[in-house]
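Acyl-CoA thioesterase
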Amino acid sequence: MNYHTRKWIKPEDLNPNHSLFGGRLLQWIDEEAALYAIVQLETPRCVTKFISEINFVSSAKQGDIIEIGIEATEFGNTSITLRCEVRNMMTRQTIITIEKIVFVGVDENGKPTKHGKTKIEYISDRLQNIDNPSR
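Predicted structure tokens:
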């Protein structure tokens, strides 16, 4: 799993129990997963279709730094399925896991559109293919 995004837990991110508010964390996860889907499907129009059971394993406190990890697990005709894990950056303790987040690429009218992707692609590979089309 790749951990690309880090968040510093600040006072405005806390719930009345003085731990990270779950809704804030889910907002960050949805945004990070959407960005991942947009890059992988090469379309700016991706919508969240499904989020499976959310497992809160531990909490984060003010001052903690967390990392959001996303990995692609499946490609459909119009969708991409992701897995997410959030952990404490310093202790590596898992905070939350989500086994399945599905995003669908859509057209200008909001209708699902085929993307033709079958595997994870990295930006560096795409750029290399532009520079060397014979690859």
